[in-house]
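Worked example 4.2. Below are the chains of a multi-component assembly; read each line carefully before continuing.
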Amino acid sequence: MGAVAWTWVLVAASFALYLGVSVYARGRNASQYYVAERPVSPVAQGMATASDWISAASFMSMAGLMAFSGRDGSAYLMGWTGGYVLLAVLVAPYLRKYGKYTVPQFVGERYYSRRARVVALLCAIAISFTYVAAQMRGVGLVLARFLGISVQAGVLWGMAVVFLYAVMGGMRGITSTQVAQYLVLVVAFLVPAVLMSVALTGQPVPAVGFGSPLSEGGAASLGVPPGRMLLDVVNQLGAELGFRPYTSGWRPRVDVLMVTLTLMAGTAGLPHILVRFFTVPKIRDARATVGWALLFIAVLYTTAPALAAFTRVTFLHAVQGTSYAEAPQWFREWEATGLVAWTDRNGDGRMQLSGREDANEVAVDQDILVLAAPEIARLPAWVVGLVAAAALAAALSTAAGLLLVIASAISHDLAKSIFTPNLLARNEIRLARLSMGAAVVAAGYVAAHPPGLIAETVALAFGFAASSFFPALVAGIFWKRANREGAIAGMLAGLGFTAACITWFKLLRPDLDSQAHWWLGISPEGIGALGMALNFAVTIAVSLLTAPPPPEVQEMVASLRYPGSGRRPAGPAARG
Amino acid sequence: MTREQQVAYWKHNLLYVVAVLAAWLAVSCGAAVLLADSLDAVRMGGFPLGFWFAEQGAIVAFVVLVAAYVKLMNALDHRHGVFEDD
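Applying the procedure described above to all two chains together yields the following structure tokens:
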């Protein structure tokens, strides 16, 4: 069976698995209908969080980005794991006991203000929309390759698939299905990494193989003398072609720092992850859940750079100097999607890779590398199918979940709860579907003309989260004096500044999106950290200049901080 | 918990938070970015050390930091008699 056939078999199999698990889990709970649902252990909750976390960005794009950027990609590795430390000590433990709340509702409660809730809703929509657009790109890529169509057509089909999946409820929220998904994702990611690690270095653990010498067979397959370290060979093969060394980066240190900080702060400010911690009854379980989630995520994140290096070196060797007429099958098939291209700049009919723009003949969309890796490494067809099925599942489930967040923010929060309380239930549902449809179409448009790679687009969403929610939540928990004027001003300042930068460089003047023009030398992916600082500064200044929060609110903040006493207090009704 | 106990509890929590964040900063911004060049001179197996920190070491450190925080806070909860039992 070819790769395409295997893909469809495994997609069907994985969805059948999720469906089966969810039916089984629901059946068990039904028998406990009159009993509170059995509490989920932090281990399971952590695994479910990890599966939510691993979207198209972590699964597909990150390793591809690292394969081409080398060390600079570590900003993503550290950003998306280090953020869990912030989550554990600054945010997650304090949200429990708020039950069915969403982050905007929590903000509205903490800052005793309907306006704060509306601002928070706008922030949540901005974050979720950007995130969805990135996932749509992922869905489009997989469909393009396996339906043999262009990526734009793939995105178009993807819109329909995502919408249907979301409307069917996306099978979200059931811990057992998410545990199953985590296992599928990790296995699908590890299989090619392990096989390539063994082929190149003889080491089964990819993270170890990453720092090992090449095996005899590995060296032979790359046409280099035996006994040298993998990373040295990666550096050398690249250097021969005019690429910078893989183990050093090109981005200015300041920017790498800023991107890392943005991703970390954003992690602790993502509404669709934070919402999980509202329903954890015990403060100690919330902390433990974050720890377990990080551990499960680390399994993938320590493997990703290894996979990136293996793929890079295999790709360089397979493509460099090969005559176009004899290009490997995977090259041709990816060419059909428009994501890989060859221009014969020196007229010799052979494919030439180079670190110099003007000499490089092969253009590759870095997002495809994880999908293509098993093919490049000539692994069996079922491995190709497994990776594709897992990538699709990751992108679909995240996209569906985020669309539901957007739809409910618009129809339930903005419309029903705030602006039009007399909205009939069936109209609320219609509005939800309409918002979901509009969001999917808009996200699809962005996915067809992306502001960057999937990981880079997701980084923009993190920038919004870092500059809006993170400061509002941290100030809200750790500083009783933080009041509604401060929070509203802070969120608007942070989000406004970040959105201005991102809109300027990604939407209005993408021709200027380069180091020479960046504001203060910071890329749009890293500007969120500056927006966060701005938010904090404005929140503090404005809070001190205006009236302190009422005593009930200060009491509420105090009660968040201690175990056991976290019975949700009767908060003040939201006052405009 | 009495008022006094609450104040003591929160003080200890803040101490732990600051300690964890200091370590977190040292690893992520320090070892992996700002000091990376000097660290790169040292080799660890096939890795330049700064590179290893950025790609693997930092992640390991983060896991350890969160685990440490969880343990410290559980101990604090016990000391103040507020450990949440099942």
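Take a moment to check your reading of the output against the notes. The helical segments of chain B are 3-34, 36-40, 49-79. Chain B has a mean pLDDT of 88.
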